[in-house]
Amino acid sequence: MDRYFTNFNTKDFPSEKVDTIIVGAGIAGLSVANKLKELGSKFIILTKKNVGISNSFLAQGGLAAAIGKDDSPELHFKDTINAGKGLCIEKNVEILVEEGLERVVDLINNGLEFDKDEKGYIKLTREAAHSKRRVLHVKDKTGKEIGKFLYKNLDNKYFETNFYLEEILTEDNKFVGVIVSNKKEKKVIYAKSLVIASGGYSPLFKRNTSTYNIGGDVILKAFRAGCRLKDIEFIQFHPTALNLPHTPAYLITEAIRGEGAILIDEKGNRFTNELAPRDEVARAIFEKEKEGSKVFLNLKPLIEKGINLEERFPTIYSLLKEYNLLDSIDKVPVSPAAHFSIGGIEANPSGKTNVEGIFAVGEASCSGVHGANRLASNSLLECITFGSKTAYGVYLYNMYQKIKEINISNKIKYKKDLTDNKKEEIIYTLKNLMWNKVGLIRDRESLKLALKSIENLIEDVQNHFSPVYILDILYLSKAVTLSALNREESRGVHYRQDFKSPREEFKKHSIIENKNFEIKLEVN
């Protein structure tokens, strides 16, 4: 794998300077930005699309925090550890549930309005594997409302929208800048530090709940820059995404099951505990589908409890209305879809990676708080908690750095351009390959077939001039597949048909380093 995937000479491009570059304008990136603004730092936020188009903005269920009178950070910690199946880094989980509670209080005190009951108390719902009702929500659009709340504090001057990150520039394992492009130009931005908050890699799979068609490419760019990848075999598949022909896999929030919705097969029979950990529910649905039965979500119990579907779950109500399902709410067709990347760029709670000047936060990162399976609604908590901590980490790092403008060049010889049809074919092939061979249920034979096919695609693409993201997602898919092949056990969301139980020798974190994709198992 080459260090750089594009032809460039930095002296040929216009350049800018700024203290910090944040890649991504989801809740993690906006949390970093809000705190950096408060600290008086100079930064810009790069985003491929307009603000508001991010996966964290799509989060429906809510934000987990132990604010209930019968709850505590200790109970939240215990539930998180139990869901993580032995791979949570406990000291980081303690930060998540304790400091996270403080960040939630900050949001409330600063004016974010969570749903309240008739007495004015914040309403709490329960989701899978939580022992208490501890999920704060704004109807079923919590992510969107938190994102809007954070965005309103930032002027447009901080944003460079519709810019694509092409290369991360380093010198002697230290970050120096980035090359970015839009439809009009390429330019170099030199900076002291880079924060990667670009989201996860669920779009690698054909059926996914992501807002993006492409995802994970920035993670691979960081890998090319020297960052270590951690636990990337762990991808959470959400049990209930809409399952209609020729229709995106729209997420149907777990909170709807927390309020009483049930899962049924074609005969109307319940077949699983709806509030078991997500990996268990997703596999139960998958097994039903293997038997030839479709699976449905029955929402009638909510109506019977007096819950107004349009008021409590307006996003879901609109979805059902759009697809003419309001008259059949007892049989809403659902099936699992790739939803959340548990693995990512190895980072500590302050976002620090092994490459000086590069920080990672949110779904792009892996700090070990989710272990082998994320507890529902802990992701938004991770974004706001570690987003704030990352801002402090960046601020302290920048204090002792100077922006370094250097010339870097790279030359690649291509045989010919990749046609648009060929690009689409490669992406389509990859997504199907990852879904069918590296998806919810895995085995050695399927993973080895996937690995060989991915390597063939890489060889084909490398001979052509193509968008850099294609090679990035191909190499990331290779890394995910290698990690899944290496973990010869079943643990959390990683399920192997040929190794159906956890194994003590694999109660460790998978680390991939940029040395011929060398995989190490570490304990930390």
Task: Outline the fold blueprint.
Elements: E1 8-9, E2 15-23, H1 27-39, E3 43-47, H2 55-58, E4 63-64, H3 73-83, H4 90-109, E5 124-125, E6 135-136, H5 142-151, E7 159-161, E8 164-170, E9 175-181, E10 186-196, H6 217-224, E11 229-230, E12 235-242, H7 255-258, E13 262-264, H8 278-290, E14 296-298, H9 300-304, H10 309-312, H11 314-322, E15 332-341, E16 344-346, E17 358-360, E18 365-366, H12 378-398, E19 409-410, E20 416-417, H13 420-437, H14 444-462, E21 464-465, H15 468-486, E22 509-513, E23 518-522
Family: Belongs to the FAD-dependent oxidoreductase 2 family. NadB subfamily.
Pathway: Cofactor biosynthesis; NAD(+) biosynthesis; iminoaspartate from L-aspartate (oxidase route): step 1/1
Domain Fumarate reductase/succinate dehydrogenase flavoprotein-like C-terminal: 430-521
What key attributes describe this structure?
single chain, 524 residues, alpha/beta, Flavocytochrome C3, Chain A, domain 1, Methane Monooxygenase Hydroxylase, Chain G, domain 1, seven-stranded mixed beta sheet, five-stranded mixed beta sheet, 23 strands, globular
